[in-house]
Amino acid sequence: MKALRIGLLALLALVLLAIGAAVFLIATVDANRHKDTLVQLVREQSGRELAIGGDIGLSLFPRLALTAAELRLSEPDGKTPFAAIDEVELAVQVMPLLRGAVQVERVRVIRPQLVYRRDAQGRSNVDDLLGAATAGSAEERAPGGGGSPGQGRTDDAARGAGRAFALDIDGVELVDARVAVDDAKGGFRGEVGGLSLELGRLVSGTSAPFALAADFAFEQPALRGRLEAGGGILIEAQRLAIRGLALDLALTPAQAAPLRLSLAGDLEHALDAGDTRAQFKGKFDDSALEGSVETAQGAPLKFALKLDRLDVDRYTAGPSTAPQPVKDAPSSPPAGDEGGKAAGSKGGGRGDAQPVDLSFAAGAPLDGRLEVGELRAAGLTLGEVSARLLGDGRSLSVAPLAARGYGGTMNGELRIDAASQRVRVQQTFADIQVGPLLRDLSGKDTLEGRGRLALDLDTRGRTVGELKRALAGKAELALRDGAIKGFNVGQILRDGQALLSGQRDQSYQFRRTEQTDFSALDASFRIAGGVARNDDLALLSPLLRVGGAGLIDIGSNRIDYTLRASVVATAEGQGGAGLEKLRGLTVPVRLSGPREAPAPQVLWSAVVGDAARRALSERLQDKLGGEGGSEAATPEEALKEELGRRLRGLLR
């Protein structure tokens, strides 16, 4: 008992001594006297200037507490502002330190500000800080370096230094933080403000609640929004996890509709390997969303997303893609004359100068899958969309790309090379209604029918006009039971056949109320330099058989094409009444002018020779018919037969 009493008295004496020493230090040590020393140390180690405008407070027991106010830190040039903190407070319990544990009572930072800059070559204003930290870590890991046991440290000391402290933080509070970003290389310029963070007690192996909120306003890209997130953070064994993550993101682009993203899920990050995995469900505006994301060092970003519906056009700026009716157009001269040249020299439409930015295809390497129940993009409305996205940091491919829509199916692929501004499309539309497809895609109402459309196109350019003028590849079209809108070939022939004897050509207006019906339409196009050429058109209808050849200049938005229409022999009773004079003849109809409204011109002068030959043949047949002459297949044969008959009469 006596020994115990002595021990207690000794312990009490030690405690009183420690308290007395602490009181003496607090009373006699003025941390503010060391401001200049701290400023000089920062200057020597980093070249940056530290300014401490407020007081530094220090307490030693029962907790080690440090407070400071009005801190300012410059960039390496010693002048440009880099970071600032209005007030910071840090408190650590002293007694747990004696047990080899770090118990942080609180960390509180009031109105911290940071400016991040990076130039186009990738040099940033934090390179010196990151470089110093990296160099220090490398030195500690190097054999014989400052961190090795061989440099004056015993094995026991090394083992003691390597022993991990138990993590225990009562709370962290970040109030009204602000980060300004000017990243020329990444293309970002703006500010994150009103940033706040509240973190509950964080102990290894135990989940700590957190709440995060921030507002941001960017000039490049032009974007404003707010982020709110919460959940529980768990740190253990080189693993950080967020359970019950709740995220709410609202974005307002400058020239597009606002969007809202709400997610709930789990996230896990390996602190040693740097791998991250996340699974989530939620809402993207009014669409249900679920997916997963996985990242690993040296590997592409992997993801899988599934949405009920997605309207891409709603979130992208640009002119409306609503269908535009084909307007009536006055007669225009053929493309070969002066008027045609003048019109053609103006090139395409007003949107040709619009820039096309494909830099998104040069993003981080990725490998993902996307499923959308209903998708609207580039004016098209598709269902059951399934796509795989592959990116290598230079280009992006969407292959395969499959969907349903317009009564049929779509299969193919899309490839985009950001460095060369190149786009490659291979797509087949099967059993589709081409009219609604073209109206949604281009706003033009020029063709109807159901069938197959195959595209294999390649182009490059930095504006819409350059892409159109560089277009190359091929296209095939096979439609049934449709119509070409804007002109009625049968009616044009019916109205103009009276001009046959006058040998005069006649132009007509392009009228949206008229159309040329067909039961079958087949054609293929060879495309080079933005010009599509065709020479195998085959259009069939009860009244007409139409072939054709010519070109469509996509780059200058003009057409120069000649249809060759033949009235079938059985036209009467099928809408062909009044075309008896043209039955069996081929009538050229030239289409020239703007692609949206070309001017039809019937080349009657080219028909006169055929008509005269046929009339001569009919007259000769009439003369020979009553005399038992043989049936002549051509006017030349009939003429020979008539001359022979007359010669035989003279010789009698």
Question: What does this protein look like?
Answer:
This protein is an alpha+beta fold and 652 residues long. It has 12 helices and 30 strands. Strand 17 and strand 18 (380-391) form a beta hairpin. Helix 11 (605-625) crosses helix 12. The model is unreliable at 1-9, 11-28, 132-137, 145-165, 318-349, 570-577 and 626-632 (pLDDT under 50).
State Rg. Answer: 41 Å
- Strand proportion: over 45%
- The assembly state of the depicted protein chains is single chain
What is the end-to-end distance? 171 Å
Number of strands: 30
Give the class from helix and strand content and strand pairing: alpha+beta
Overall shape: it is elongated
Spans where pLDDT lies below 50 across 5 or more residues: 1-9, 11-28, 132-137, 145-165, 318-349, 570-577, 626-632
Helix residue percentage: 10-25%
> Biggest sheet, open or closed, and with what strands and sense?
30 strands, mixed
Q: Give the number of helices.
A: 12
Mean pLDDT equals: 77
In short, what is this structure?
The chain has twelve helices and 30 strands. The protein has about 650 residues and is an alpha+beta fold.
Write the layout of secondary structure elements.
Elements: H1 2-28, H2 35-46, E1 50-52, E2 56-59, E3 63-74, E4 81-93, H3 95-98, E5 101-118, H4 127-141, H5 155-162, E6 166-169, E7 172-183, E8 188-199, E9 202-203, E10 208-220, E11 223-236, E12 239-253, E13 259-270, E14 276-284, E15 287-295, E16 301-311, H6 312-315, H7 338-344, E17 366-377, E18 380-391, E19 395-405, E20 408-417, E21 422-433, H8 434-442, E22 447-460, H9 464-469, E23 472-485, H10 489-496, E24 506-507, E25 515-528, E26 531-540, E27 544-553, E28 558-567, E29 586-594, E30 599-602, H11 605-625, H12 635-650
